[in-house]
Amino acid sequence: MAAPALAEEAPTGIKRTPLQAIDFPEGYRTVTGLAEVAPGHASGMHTHPGIETGYVLEGEVLMSVEGEPDRMLKAGDSYVVPSGAKHDVKSIGSVPAKAVSVFVVDKTNPLASPAK
Question: In terms of domain of life, where is this protein from (predicted)?
């Protein structure tokens, strides 16, 4: 949910807080971050050069992953986005959605890229 990238400027309605980043395993960077998405806002379709896994802390989101049915996620739900999958997350509740995401990505590429 932290897309497009934790270190880059977030789209309007999205706040990203980097929590931790380490170079591990070899050739990869593991990044943990907190994303907050205001009601009605979305991350925009994007990809990561590795997997993303996470846990919804608060609120509700609609997660769209290319090739999979859309999923409604609420506080307490977890998710996985496969490496390279185009995906988007939209906050659909009346309160901001908050999630912790962990990315294990090829460290020679940006954490996230807009989907083509």
Answer: Bacteria
Distance CA 10, CA 5 (A): 8
Are residues 70 and 62 in contact, defined by beta-carbon separation less than 8 angstroms? Answer: yes
Hey, which residues does 26 pair with through a beta bridge?
A: none
The answer as to CATH 3.40.50.300 being correct for domain 14-107 is: no
- Give the HSE-up count for residue 2: Cα atoms under 13 Å, Cβ half-sphere: 28
Is the model's pTM score more than 0.90? no
Which residues lie below 8 Å from residue 110, measured CB to CB, with a gap of 6+? 5, 49
Domain boundaries defined on the chain: 14-107
Backbone phi, then psi, for 3, in 5-degree steps? -70, 165
Confirm if 10 and 16 have CB atoms less than 8 A apart: yes
DSSP class per residue in 15-29? EEEEEEEE--STTEE
Q: For residue 22, what are its two tokens? A: 């380490």
